[in-house]
Amino acid sequence: MIWTETRDLPPALQRVRPYTMISNDWLTDLARLVQTVLANDIPGDFVECGVWRGGASFLMADLLRQAGERHRKVWLFDSFEGLPPPEVIDGPAAQEYATGTSDPYYYDNCRVSLEEVRLAAAQLGVAEYTECVKGWFDQTLPAHRSKIGPIALLRLDCDWYASMRCCLDNLYDQVTEGGFIAVDDYFGLDGCALAVHEFLGERRLAHRIESFAGKWTGVEHVSGAWTGAEAYADAYQGAVIRKGGRATWKELRHAYLTAQDIATLVPTGATFIMVDYGWLGDKTPAGRQVVPLFGSNRQHSRPADTVVLQAVERGRQGGAAFLVFAWPTFWWIDQRSALARSLRARYRCLLENDRVVVFNLQEVAEG
Questions:
Q1: Which pLDDT score is estimated for 216?
Q2: Which of 144, 280, 287, 315 lies 20 to 30 angstroms, CA to CA, from 17?
Q3: Strands, E assignment, the chain
């Protein structure tokens, strides 16, 4: 993978900043979502409907380029003539936007020419990873969906109810099982939210809707109303729907980073005891032998401290060199627990973060 931590991302964000009005939080989570798709090998291309100057698509394309993913590309669908007029169902925020032509955030009704977007893609070096399609969604999507094929990530930034329904009706079925739909305006525009709920309800789909980005001045938030372009820019946030699958995109990313942590500390060929309720599954790093603490790694109740400590010691004597608690089982070793104190007294703790706690069973604490 090309990067794992947010600190590695700023150069890519800086490259696309002139071509997007999306906040850095949104862009960062979009990049993390791209990484989640690649790390979990979710098949399909990336599609964005409603691209403005192309910044979000360029970021996805740039990350594909850096990862050497030559068999995927990003499709950019847009009228390249601006937004159609909103309807009553789109709500007051949409009407305010449409009439606020003097507002600096109006951006000429989001009108950008196809030639300008293609030129920007070429200047950024991502033209070969992108394909632009000009026209209204109800015409272009039916005509091109067979060319697109499977979709790993569908990003919808199409604002109004009719546009959102058109995109979902035409492209949802091509989203790969386990793939993602990122909805830009879910929290900000009524018509967008209505279209999403209506579509899921009509299809009887029990997909969960997960917030995307969502930190403003350091705290989690959702944007429940749009009271003008300035407030909208400050509270910019969308939503993500995962098609099928148990874990959300954030859980998948967390699992990927957890596996990276384990791979860093547990050398190839080593045996380690894993306590995670079986959550990591096939994401456990290859080349290591994993043994459950008890007969099954799906033990959801915590036995008595003495029983746990005896099981750990049996595993150590049987050749296990490390003990790993993954985040679903952190309540077992909460800082206040006697079990945590006993483990720390017996074995050296190598790492403790919001994903894993790792003990080296070969380094037994003295006394």
A1: 39
A2: 144
A3: 45-49, 74-78, 130-134, 151-156, 175-183, 209-212, 215-216, 219-220, 238-242, 271-275, 289-292, 322-326, 347-352, 356-364
Give the span between the Cα atoms of 231 and 249, in whole angstroms. Answer: 27
Are 22 and 171 part of one and the same domain?
yes
> Rounded to an integer, what distance in angstroms lies between the CA atom of residue 135 and that of residue 93?
25
Q: Residue 178 region, left (φ>0) first, then alpha (ψ -120 to 50), else beta?
A: left
Rounded CA separation 47/130 (Å): 10
Question: Tokens 């008890």 sit at which residue?
Answer: 294
Q: Where are the alpha helices (DSSP H) in 41-160?
A: 55-67, 92-99, 107-110, 114-123, 137-148
When mean pLDDT is compared across 21-30, 122-131, 266-275, 296-305, the lowest value belongs to: 296-305
Same domain, 109 and 134: yes
116-153 burial, b at 16+ Cβ within 10 Å, e below that, comes to: ebbebbeebebbebbbbbebebeebbeebbeebeebbb
Number of domains in the chain: 2
CA-closest candidate to residue 258, choices 125, 360, 174, 358:
358
Given this model, what pLDDT does residue 34 score?
94
Task: Give tens-digit pLDDT for 60-105.
Answer: 999 999 999 989 999 999 999 999 999 999 999 989 888 888 888 8
pLDDT bracket for residue 323 (50, 70, 90): very high
d(CA 322, CA 352): 14
Cβ-Cβ contacts under 8 Å for 195 (sequence gap 6 or more): 161, 162, 164, 165, 168
Res 282: pLDDT: 74
Is residue 233 scored above 50 in pLDDT? no
* Contact of 289 with 312, CB cutoff 8 Å: no
pLDDT of 269 over the 50 cut: yes
| Distance from C-alpha of 322 to C-alpha of 320, rounded to nearest angstrom | 6
Whether residue 276 sits in one domain with residue 163: no
- Which CATH number do you get for residue 205? 3.40.50.150
